[in-house]
Design goal:
mainly alpha, two-stranded antiparallel ribbon, 18 helices
């Protein structure tokens, strides 16, 4: 298979498989600014399928630091992915001599395992995943791995597939957390972790914050953030993440309206629960507090952050202000968020 094709569609969701193996700065002490720039250049050219330029950048690293372990690893990885096993083994042996316990040696071994994977078996695992048969797909991937750790180049699509089931989601999150800890510079891994964290209410805010950190200039992260914001039941502390999103998308009425309607929703929902249980006085007070909270937070959304983005930001501010003035007249009703993600395959729980 062509390892340069990193994008794999799983169940209608774009899942990114990192063909880089380990990120450049995951382990080495590459703090020299010149070295970091050169390693970034090598990563960039490799992603663009220009390994000649990537290796040229790595050779410049060796001029600065002849024993740079990260550069040695990258030379071994790129050579292996290009099918030059003799060259790959030369660099692998050098890495082993420089850093005998380096975890990236396992990644290089994984590239060898990938070459032994049956294309038909891999296609079947992906077919099962695309059909939504998560349990069978995970089993198919595990058969490919032969009881070992996931092959590095397939790890992300494996974990993303696993995250498609509530039963296996915790294991997927754990695997991605471990991988993200080892690969802090690997954007694909960080994005995958952020996305799966949004699949359940207990970690949705953490995932949203991670997506917000990646969203500027990253369309996939930005789209995933939008969906997460629609899944969430807005709380007072969520104002910042909503506001930052709306600064980039001032005309996104769906997210704005979801936030506006959700403010104070927790208190109001408690009121409806009390009402259903016959506690009329308690219900009236809780709904009143919810309405007051909603009105106050509507007024706070967007003012400083949106002021500098005229004229359409100005129009949005005016709409928010007008809505705030009419908050007391708005008809109060229970809020339901399960339908916020209509048309997608992810969670029905809000939070």
């Amino acid at each position: 298979m062509n390892n340069k094709k990193r994008n794999v569609w799983i169940g209608g969701t774009l899942c990114l498989g990192s063909a880089l193996g380990m990120a450049p700065y995951a382990f080495g002490a590459d703090n020299d600014p010149a070295v970091r720039v050169l390693l970034d250049q090598a990563t960039y050219w490799h992603q663009k399928s220009h390994d000649d330029l990537a290796k040229a950048a790595l050779q410049k690293v060796f001029q600065v630091d002849a024993g740079n372990i990260t550069a040695v690893y990258m030379m071994a990885l790129y050579s292996s992915q290009n099918g030059d096993e003799k060259e790959a083994e030369k660099w692998r042996q050098k890495l082993m001599a420089l850093s005998p316990n380096d975890p990236r040696l396992a990644s290089l071994a994984g590239e060898q395992r990938l070459k032994a994977v049956s294309p038909a078996q891999l296609a079947e695992a992906r077919k099962l995943a695309a059909a939504g048969n998560v349990k069978a797909a995970v089993a198919a991937y595990q058969a490919l791995f032969n009881g070992s750790q996931p092959i590095d180049s397939l790890a992300l699509e494996y974990y993303m597939t696993m995250a498609g089931s509530a039963d296996s989601l915790p294991e997927a999150v754990a695997g991605l957390r471990q991988r993200a800890g080892l690969l802090p510079q690997d954007t694909d891994t960080q994005l995958a972790l952020a996305k799966v964290l949004t699949y359940q209410p207990s970690t949705r805010r953490e995932g949203s914050e991670k997506l917000a950190a990646l969203a500027d200039g990253n369309k996939e992260a930005d789209q995933a953030l939008r969906q997460s914001l629609l899944w969430m039941t807005p709380q007072p502390d969520d104002a910042d993440v909503y506001q930052k999103y709306l600064q980039r998308h001032a005309d996104d009425n769906a997210v704005l309206e979801h936030y506006r309607q959700g403010l104070g929703g927790g208190a109001k929902q408690s009121g409806y629960t009390a009402l259903n249980s016959g506690d009329l006085a308690g219900a009236r007070e809780k709904i009143r507090r919810g309405a007051e909270s909603q009105s106050q937070r509507r007024r706070s959304l967007g003012r400083p952050g949106l002021r500098q983005h005229a004229p359409r930001r100005l129009r949005r501010r005016r709409q928010i202000s007008a809505a705030s003035r009419g908050a007391g007249r708005a008809k109060q009703r229970p809020m339901e968020y399960a339908g916020a993600g209509r048309g997608v395959l992810r969670p029905v729980e809000s939070g």
